[in-house]
Design brief:
Ionotropic_Glu_rcpt; alpha+beta; single chain; four-stranded mixed beta sheet
Length: about 650
């Protein structure tokens, strides 16, 4: 608490003095450690702090210790704690009465171990990157003694030997186990057993610090921080395909895309055919006779300008952002085109962005990207090394998904549990198997040739590797202090770069990140917009009919509709006859249709020279095809002329 108050007082005084406090990103793994640009100024203010604290006045001396520190010396007796003395910076230790310490001692004697005259027997376990054991060198020369061993742990052991002054002898554990407790036999195996039975003085290997092991032995401070993860085989590189550019979207999405384009085209053709303001519009009552004749002449001598093929063609040209040759004339058709254009814009932008990601990011096809994904599926088996800390973690865990994974590993123990790292790697490369172990060991394997496996998922069960000593060993503190010094000086980082880190494989291939293909579920909103626009177009079509019918209402003309309902009814009957006529013309023979059109043109020329309108009512003239019905007056003949 006083340390936190000291920092708070220092920052307060620094800001009050007008100094700026700019946070900077520092990398603590860089050797030598970078300094904060404002650190020297901040330290000066800390030295001048003097304020109230929890244990007294908060004030720091030049060496960083408390200026006013006062400590009570207490002893634990049957009736509780008893104060027997005091220590302060000025007077030192004051004991008013004699105190009997453990062992009946009246004076405190500091224990000083002497490792410089000792030879320690060290047990180790083979592990890639950390402990390599070989009988011959690269030239075939036989190796003996400590020459057989190399790796991260061996270099660290040699460094500790130089710092603490001891000599050592190395041997490999006989049963090839790290150390696990057998509740039936009530004894330990592996390196832990050797240390407990004093066959070895210390164990130096990738031995994870666990609570169960610390009950039987002592651990030093961890020299490496580790966590559990798992490795899987990489997907085989697929052969190049000419259709790789289609990979950003799933097949269902492409299919829906094309179907929607065709549906919009058909819908556009129908809307523009039905609309009174489309290309095939009926003549409006307000038009002059000259305008009507010009309109009939244009419609008679030109092809229908917005046919079904034109509408579908317009949809596909919008997909590739090419302007169509013909645009819809009616408002309902324009609304459909706008909504379809909006959806097309979103789809094309999404496709372009995802295609860029596919071309620049290495994709992993596996759907397993975390330990939760691994536990939730049943196709890929998973396991770990037996009789070790990893297996104990799963068996003792009370959390999901580790409980479920432990149950499966217990049921299929013979199939999923292995006895060595080499066996685990072999099962991974054979396929449909994930091997769970410490991340630093798996990183060593995954970053080296043949680069056919990858580490997957985040770390779980954080722990550390430590040096194992016998329970109550007088050397535990000395080893811990030396390990802390090795970490602070950067020696551990140097060993990591020497033995663990590798650039043999592309780092991006060893991650669990993946670039997913866009599915139809992720783009449903776009199709809702498109088909929603088509529904809006239908509403607008109804309004167009109402507006056109309102224009037909005329109470002065005897034959004109007198109400909107009557106008709508009349227009619907007229349109029904027109659609039937168009359908009959479509069913007829093309040659006969051409003859009819030629005969109609001749009749029109004759009609222009004849003032009698009854000429069009002649029943003997049949301008329809073989499957059409008889004409019914001037209005029906007018619609055939539009064809």
């Amino acid at each position: 608490m006083d340390a936190v108050l000291l920092l708070a007082y220092g920052l307060r005084d620094m800001l009050a003095a007008g100094e700026t406090v700019d946070p900077e990103s520092l990398n603590c793994s860089v050797i030598p450690h970078p300094e904060w640009s404002r650190g020297e100024t901040f330290l000066q203010h800390l030295h001048m702090v003097d304020g109230p604290g929890v244990t007294g006045r908060v004030s720091m001396k030049s060496d960083g210790s408390s200026r006013n520190a006062v400590y009570d010396v207490v002893t634990l007796e049957k009736d509780g704690w008893k104060k027997v003395g005091r220590w302060n910076d000025s007077a030192g230790l004051t004991l008013p009465e004699r105190v009997t310490f453990m062992g009946g001692q009246q004076e405190v004697i500091d224990f000083i171990s002497d490792l410089s005259n000792r030879t320690l027997r060290v047990v180790t376990h083979k592990e890639q990157g950390f402990v390599h054991i070989r009988d011959t060198d690269e030239w075939g020369k036989n190796l003996t003694g400590k020459e057989r061993f190399s790796g991260f742990c061996i270099d660290l052991l040699e460094w500790l030997s130089e710092k603490l002054g001891f000599r050592y002898e190395l041997y490999e554990v006989e049963d090839n186990n790290f150390g696990a407790y057998d509740p039936e036999l009530k004894k330990w195996n592996g390196m832990v057993h050797d240390v407990i039975t004093k066959t070895a003085d210390i164990a130096m290997a990738t031995l994870t610090i666990t609570a169960q092991r610390e009950e039987a032995c002592d651990f030093t401070m961890p020299y490496v921080d580790v966590g559990l993860t798992f490795i899987m085989g990489k997907e085989e590189t697929k052969t190049y395909s000419l259709l790789n550019f289609l990979t950003p979207f799933e097949r269902d999405l492409w299919f829906m895309f094309v179907v929607t384009a065709v549906a919009v085209g058909i819908f556009q053709a129908v809307i523009n055919y039905l609309s009174p303001y489309g290309y095939r519009a009926q003549e409006q009552p307000g038009q002059s006779e000259r305008s009507k004749r010009r309109r009939r002449h244009e419609d008679l001598n030109a092809k229908p300008p917005y046919r079904l093929s034109d509408a579908v063609w317009q949809s596909f040209t919008m997909l590739v952002q090419i302007g169509p040759e013909v645009f819809p004339r009616s408002y309902a058709g324009r609304i459909t085109a706008i909504f379809f254009g909006l959806g097309t814009m979103v789809l094309l932008a999404t496709y372009t962005a995802n295609l860029a990601a596919f071309l620049t990011v290495s994709r992993l096809m596996s759907g397993i990207n975390s330990v939760e994904d691994l536990a939730a599926q049943s196709e890929v088996l998973y396991g770990a090394r037996g009789s070790g800390a990893t297996e104990s973690f799963f068996l003792e865990s009370k959390l999901e998904p580790y409980k479920t994974m432990a149950r499966l590993m217990t049921e299929k123990r013979d199939d999923v549990m292995v006895t060595s790292m080499e066996e685990g790697l072999k099962k991974v490369r054979e396929g449909n198997y994930a091997f769970i172990s410490d991340n630093v060991v798996l990183d060593y394997v995954a970053t080296r040739q043949p680069c056919d496996i990858k580490t997957v998922g985040r770390l779980f069960r954080n722990a550390g590797y430590g040096v194992l000593l016998a329970k109550g060993s007088p050397y535990t503190g000395e080893f811990s202090n030396a390990i802390i010094q090795a970490r602070e000086s950067g020696f551990i980082e140097t060993l990591t770069k020497k033995w663990i880190t590798s650039n043999e494989c592309d780092k991006s291939q060893n991650t669990g990140a993946s670039q997913d293909r866009i599915s139809i579920n992720k783009m449903l909103g776009v199709f809702v917009v498109i088909y929603g626009g088509m529904c809006v177009s239908l509403v607008v079509l109804v309004f167009e009919w109402l507006v056109a019918s309102c224009r037909d209402v005329d109470t002065k003309k005897p034959k004109a509709p007198k109400s909107i309902g009557e106008a709508v009814s009349k227009n619907l009957r007229s349109q029904a006859r027109r659609y039937k006529s168009d359908w009959d013309s479509f069913c007829g023979d093309k040659r006969e249709l051409d003859d009819n059109r030629t005969e109609i043109r001749m009749k029109r020329r004759s009609a222009n020279n004849n003032t009698s309108a009854n000429h069009y009512n002649t029943r003997d003239h049949r301008p329809f095809s073989a499957c059409s019905s008889e004409p019914d007056g001037e209005e029906e003949l007018l619609h055939v002329t539009v064809l």
